[in-house]
Amino acid sequence: MLKDFVVEALELATNVEEHLLTLERHPDDLEILNAVFRAFHTIKGGAGFVNLPAMVSACHLTENLFDALRTGKAPVTPLAIEAALQASGFVADQLNELSN
């Protein structure tokens, strides 16, 4: 079960990074904002299931940020994108450690 989670979450984290780089060029793209939100939501759920509380926390914070961005409660800024890239990097690092 852990192995399946790691494989799926690594794919999602990779997709998130690609989406975030696109979002830098198209900050009003609601489809990308929703995709990033869903990816962090999915990773958070899986991380909770396999008992990875630090990953759950990072994903939860980023999920909250993207909820505010996608609903227009906060603007998409370079700082917001950088925060999400940092969270995605943290998730990928944790997943890579688990896969070794």
TrEMBL record:
<dbReference type="Pfam" id="PF01627">
    <property type="entry name" value="Hpt"/>
</dbReference>
<protein>
    <submittedName>
        <fullName>Chemotaxis CheA protein</fullName>
    </submittedName>
</protein>
<keyword id="KW-0902">Two-component regulatory system</keyword>
<dbReference type="GO" id="GO:0000160">
    <property type="term" value="P:phosphorelay signal transduction system"/>
</dbReference>
<feature type="domain" description="HPt">
    <location>
        <begin position="1"/>
        <end position="100"/>
    </location>
</feature>
<keyword id="KW-0597">Phosphoprotein</keyword>
<dbReference type="GO" id="GO:0004672">
    <property type="term" value="F:protein kinase activity"/>
</dbReference>
<feature type="modified residue" description="Phosphohistidine">
    <location>
        <position position="41"/>
    </location>
</feature>
<dbReference type="InterPro" id="IPR008207">
    <property type="entry name" value="Sig_transdc_His_kin_Hpt_dom"/>
</dbReference>
<dbReference type="InterPro" id="IPR051315">
    <property type="entry name" value="Bact_Chemotaxis_CheA"/>
</dbReference>
<dbReference type="InterPro" id="IPR036641">
    <property type="entry name" value="HPT_dom_sf"/>
</dbReference>
